[in-house]
Amino acid sequence: MIRVESLHRHFGGFRAVDGASLTIKTGSITGLVGPNGAGKTTLFNVIAGALPPTSGRVLMEGEDITGLAPHQLFHKGLLRTFQIAHEFSSMSCRENLMMVPGGQTGEGLWASWFQRGRIAQEEAALLKKADEVLDFLTISHLKDEKAGNLSGGQKKLLELGRTMMVEARIVFLDEVGAGVNRTLLNTIGDAILRLNRERGYTFCMIEHDMEFIGRLCDPVIVMAEGRVLAEGSVEEIKANEAVIEAYLGTGLKNKDMVG
C-alpha cells in the first residue's frame, strides 16, 4: 500500500531520515521501532505530509503522494495519530467524533439558513455513527464526558475512534502506548486488531513497548540513524545482531528487547 523510496529529510547538516526505503503492505500491522533519534517520527511526519522531504518519494498504491498536505492525504484515507492525543477538550467524546467528517452541510452559512432539514439528517447519522464507534471501543459510558477529563489511555482510544468516523485505509500510530496503563493498552490493542481483521484497516505504528509490538505487529521494521536497519518478525528482530548493537546504551536491551 505504501512504498517509501530513498527518503531523506535533513535539518541543516543533520540527516534525520537518511535514505530510508520500506514497504507497508495492505492489510498489515507494521511495527516501526528503533532507538531514540532513529528518525521514526520524522519519517511519519514526511509520509503524513507534515514535513516535505529533502529528496525521495512516497507512493500509495502506486500513486506518488510525496509532499501532499495532510488534508489531501486525509481524503485519500491516510491518517496519522500522535504520541500526545489531540482532542477538543471542552467538547464531549461524542461531539469530538462528530466533528471529524469534512464537507458537512452545516459548515456553510447559506446552508445553515436554508437547508436545516438536511443538516438535521446529517447530524442524526453522525450521532448514530459516533455512538457505534464509542461502543466498538468500549467507551460508550464516556460519550457525554468532556474529552479533557479523560485519562491518557482513554484519549488514545478517542483518537483511534476519530479514524473510524471516516473511510480510513491506513493509519499511522505514533506511540499509542505512551503513558497508558496496561489494562487500557490491552483495550487499545484489541481495537486495533479488530479494525485490522474486521474492517481491513492497515496500520503502521511507532512503539517502544516490545510486548505490545509482539502481540500486534508482523512485520517489524527497525530504524537506526535515519535508515532502515532490519525487517522481520519480532523474534527475528530480537535475534538480529545489528539490531542488538543499535540498541546498546539505550537501556532497551535490559527491557527484553533482545530476549
From TrEMBL:
InterPro entries: AAA+_ATPase (IPR003593), ABC_AA/LPS_Transport (IPR051120), ABC_transporter-like_ATP-bd (IPR003439), ABC_transporter-like_CS (IPR017871), BCA_ABC_TP_C (IPR032823), P-loop_NTPase (IPR027417)
Molecular functions (GO terms): ATP binding; ATP hydrolysis activity
GO cellular component, one term: plasma membrane
CDD domains membership: ABC_Mj1267_LivG_branched (cd03219)
Domain of life: Bacteria
Domain ABC transporter: 2-250
Keywords: ATP-binding, Nucleotide-binding, Transport
PANTHER family the UniProt entry points to: CONSERVED COMPONENT OF ABC TRANSPORTER FOR NATURAL AMINO ACIDS, CONSERVED COMPONENT OF ABC TRANSPORTER FOR NATURAL AMINO ACIDS-RELATED
Annotated protein name in UniProt: Amino acid/amide ABC transporter ATP-binding protein 1, HAAT family (TC 3.A.1.4.-)
